[in-house]
User: Fold this.
Amino acid sequence: MNTIQRYAKILTSMSIVFAVLVVIGTCAPWLHELFPAALWKFFPSNTIQDALLMPLSHRLMALFVSCISLAILCRGIIVFNRLMQSFYQGELFSQATAQQLHTLSKVALAWAVYTPIQSTLLGLITTLHHGIGKKMITLSISFGTHDMINLMVFGAFVLATGLIQEGSKLKQEQDLTV
Amino acid sequence: MNIIVRLDELMARRKLRLNELAQRVDLTEANLSILKTGKAKAIRFSTLQVLCKELNCQPGDLLEYTNE
Assistant:
């Protein structure tokens, strides 16, 4: 087992653990009746306080909004696992791995675009039960924060896709050199 | 492709089979087959050298350029 295969295996296991934690982390604040109270200390106190005061209909709306980003993330994790599986099998430069990286870049772009939308919607939903004049809607996109990091991750995936495609062409030529 | 590999003709003239030639020039049958069927993208000088030596021919006998 070489270094790439070893890391591919470790990253696959880590991504599965991460996926489980993210699913719990997304659902727990909005469906807190279903989860033990001991779990709440792992969440920011304002998130839990907001969730405790919100009516069920608003919490379900918040859950729906959160589940969209969860779906994007899960899609990313599934594709990432397939990519790691390809790497584990020693398939580094192929059209399949380039396609998987291309999909990952699309997932990263979707994540980058949806994150500020989610923050805005959740800000509104968590204050919907407040009185008139106390509801909040904010849209924040700023340099040097998560938004820019998400866009940089997208750019890195696009670059990696190009590199793998070039590598795939070189490998094909190498395979057909006698 | 404009370069035609005449390996099959040279082998037929010398009544050589692919596995036999592969053994003599120390190449895999798969690689020789790629060359014979014209799928090869490139050929190493070392491969050309052993093939010319074994088939007793010049590189020009093995490769031909057509303008089509």
Remarks:
- The interface with chain B takes residues 172-173, 176-178 of chain A (CB under 8 Å).
- Chain A has a mean pLDDT of 86.
- Chain A is about 70% helix and 0% strand.
- The two ends of chain A are 28 Å apart (CA to CA).
